[in-house]
Amino acid sequence: MRILLVEDEKSLQSLLLLNLQAEGYEVKIAETGKEAIQLFSRESFQLIILDIMLPEMDGIEVCRRIRLSDQKTPILFLTARDSSEDRIQGLRIGGDDYLSKPFVLEELLLRVQNLLRRSGAQFKVMKNVFVFGSNEVNFDTYEATGKVGKINLTKIEARLLKMLIDHRNEVVSRKQILHTVWGYDVYPSTRTIDNFIMSFRKYFEDDSRNPQYFHSVRGVGYKFVS
Ligand code: CA
Fold first, then answer.
1. How many Å lie between the centroid of ligand 1 and the Cα of residue 53?
2. Ligand 1 centre from 55 Cα, in Å?
3. Distance from the CA of 52 to the center of ligand 1, in angstroms?
4. What distance in Å separates the CA atoms of residue 171 and residue 223, rounded to the nearest whole number?
5. Fold of the domain built from segment(s) 2-122
6. I need a surface site. Which of 98, 123, 146, 175 has the fewest CB within 10 A?
7. Ligand 1 centroid distance, CA of 22 (Å)
8. What are the residue ranges spanned by the domains of the chain?
9. CATH class of this structure's domain 129-224
10. What's the 12 CA to ligand 1 centre distance in angstroms?
11. Rounded distance between C-alpha atoms, residue 132 and residue 107, angstroms
């Protein structure tokens, strides 16, 4: 479980860091709103602890921006005592819970636990299912539903698909694909990857000649666009 802690007060920062780590969480710290947004866009977190009073960009704005692309990751606000306005705005903008400073550490840890548990159920159900357009892929069972109906993916197909989807909207090079999907031992030809991409288009594209999702980038690699 990874937590993004956004707090500019050093003493509170280290207190929370130590205690969250003691509970077994992996914690990344951001001291400004901008840093928080950058970290969140680059790495995956299961929860965000977000101080409202931050230099430059406040926690409310950070939450608003995160919620543009992510509605699920729980956000626990830390607010100054007596600022009910902040609390209301924080919850309205997509925060899940708040705690007023100064707070009892035990209470924070319990709230963190609760938020994670609540989102955990949702996370499990959604975890390995990816939906794009009218297509659906379940990476636990290797079953997919596409234009052609139900598809049982092979292990290699599922791995390649997962890799492209994990790197969606980025170009993935052939070399990356070979290393990740086939490992170092067996090196299929580029042609083999092309054949897989052609299958994906047949499974999932409305018009496999004018792909919407599975793009080849000549001389470089492939890109899944969603
Ligand atoms: Ca602060």
1. 4
2. 8
3. 7
4. 5
5. Rossmann fold (3.40.50)
6. 175
7. 23
8. 2-122, 129-224
9. mainly alpha
10. 9
11. 40
